[in-house]
């Protein structure tokens, strides 16, 4: 188990227990975290699982992930990631995931 903290744009945060092997996206859905929609179910085809992670432990986004991030409706930053592409490991315990400002 790893504890993952999701932070909403307004600063509210929720720390949850994540199962190893699940993605950050699956963890968010399992805990009804606002801001992660995952319309494609993790197939890297939608960018509705966009989040910001400033933590070297998650590694770099793949080329395909970077391409899909360009389709994100929210503001894309240097720390942008697709949460479906990050697998939870014990080594990610304490990870902080920021959610984007919702697009109206
Ligand atoms: Fe669609 Fe991540 S869930 S790209």
3D architecture notes:
- The structure is a single chain.
- The protein has 104 residues and is an alpha+beta fold.
- It is built from two helices and five strands.
- A hairpin with a 5-residue loop joins strand 1 and strand 2 (13-18).
- The radius of gyration is 12 Å and the shape is globular.
- The N and C termini lie far apart (35 Å).
- The relative contact order is 0.30.
- The mean pLDDT is 96.
- Residues 25, 38-40, 42, 44-49, 68, 82, 84 line the site of FE2/S2 (inorganic) cluster.
What are the main properties of this structure?
104 residues, alpha+beta, Ubiquitin-like (UB roll), three-stranded mixed sheet, two-stranded antiparallel sheet, 2 helices, binds FE2/S2 (inorganic) cluster, iron-sulfur
